[in-house]
Amino acid sequence: MMSLAACAAGFFLDFIFGDPVWLYHPVRLIGKGISFGERQLRRLCGQRSCPTDPQLQGNKTEDGQPESGREDSRKLVAAGAFLWVCIAGLSFLIPLGVLALAQKIHPALKFVLETFWCYQIIAARCLCKESGKVYDRLKAEDLPGARKAVSMIVGRDTENLSAEGVTKAAVETVAENTSDGVTAPLIYMLIGGAPFGFLYKAVNTMDSMLGYKNDKYLYFGRIPAKLDDVFNYIPARVTAMFMIAASFLCGLDGKNAWRIYRRDRRKHASPNAAQTEAVCAGALRVRLAGDAVYFGKLYKKEFIGDAIRQIEPEDIKRAGRLMYVTAFLLLIVFGAVKYALLILI
Question: Which Gene Ontology BP terms does the record give (predicted)?
């Protein structure tokens, strides 16, 4: 019961205050642990890049793959898996142990500490704040400033984006991170308190840092990327359902959100990313996704949604409101279900 109250309190603290910029965030510590572990494991493997590099290729096997390359790729996959177990395990066990100790000292101390951690884990206010900076620059007709602002929240190259491209990138980020940054950690915390929340953040952070399909991370990041898909599979789809309901409450096109969701929810390389993007595109009646440039290379992507109308800066604000209503609905429903189960059990 205390964990449920701490989760709800943490959510509302984030809604009111957002992330305190002066305070060291636990995710930064997780990130440092990932970077340190990666360096050590690569040193042990004797690798710094993908084993498909010509320098790493030796004699070829019968199937045409270099012997050394295949052996090195296995080492890197195993190293990435080992790092995942270590980071995920520590991110769960340390908060669990600290909260157990706090409980022994006084239950109120445990509640305060868990509330604070839940507050730090949820990133709704931060997402709205950063996307709001993009909106402000667009409204001021400051395209260079808008490109710089959106570059802080997206992975694609933004130097040559038009105002429409900047707007679309911001809306896509808010839509996708409604699940990754808000509702998914909320679901895990409602299930297992702050320790589950930190476990999820560790999994998500490892995917963000290691889950690239490039020469450096093709093998090392394979397991972290796959397990992030697993951890987000159910939350992404649950969030999409709540977002469709939220579309009606926000005065958006809920019927179109459902139509586009059914049609376009699989139009992404990730099995989860297009779930909420499709709903948002349908609710706003705009077209999202499409080709994008990453690290100077053009990647072909399918469009999500129909261009019933042209996207505009106000859609950034609409996406933010949709995110919050989605999160509120999920908190109310999941919180009520957990409360009922606790009473019955």
Answer: cobalamin biosynthetic process
Which residue ranges make up each domain of the chain? 2-55+65-344
CA distances from 107 to 80, 102, 131, 288 (A): 38, 7, 38, 47
**6 close to 114: Cβ distance less than 8 angstroms:** yes
CA distance 119 to 8: 9
Residue 9 to residues 36, 82, 106, 165, Cα–Cα distance (Å): 33, 35, 19, 37
- Residue ranges with strand state E in 194-320: 288-289, 292-294, 297-299, 303-304
Closest C-alpha to 220, from 87, 58, 41: 41
Per-residue DSSP letter, 30: H
Q: Which residue has the tokens 């409602």?
A: 190
Q: How many CB atoms lie within 10 A of CB 6?
A: 24
Return d(Cα 281, Cα 324) in angstroms, integer.
Answer: 16
CA distance 271 to 62: 34
CB 203, CB 316: distance < 8 Å: no
Residue reference for tokens 């606790």: 342
**pLDDT, tens only, 141-188:** 999 999 999 999 888 888 889 999 999 999 999 999 999 999 999 999
Maximum alpha-carbon separation in the chain: 65
Supply φ then ψ for residue 258, to 5 degrees. -65, -40
Predicted confidence (pLDDT) per residue in 206-228, tens digit = 998 998 887 888 899 999 999 99
* pLDDT one-digit tens code per residue, 280-294: 999 999 999 888 888
312-323 pLDDT, tens digit per residue, is 999 999 999 999
Number of Cα atoms under 13 Å in the Cβ half of residue 228: 25
Q: Torsions phi, psi of 294, nearest 5?
A: -125, 125
Nearest-5° angle of CA 163, CA 165, CA 167?
A: 70
Interatomic CA distance for residues 306 and 284, integer angstroms: 10
Rounded to two decimals, the pTM is: 0.88
**Distance, first Cα to last Cα, the chain:** 12
Query: What's the chain's length in residues?
Result: 345
**DSSP assignment, residue 202?**
H
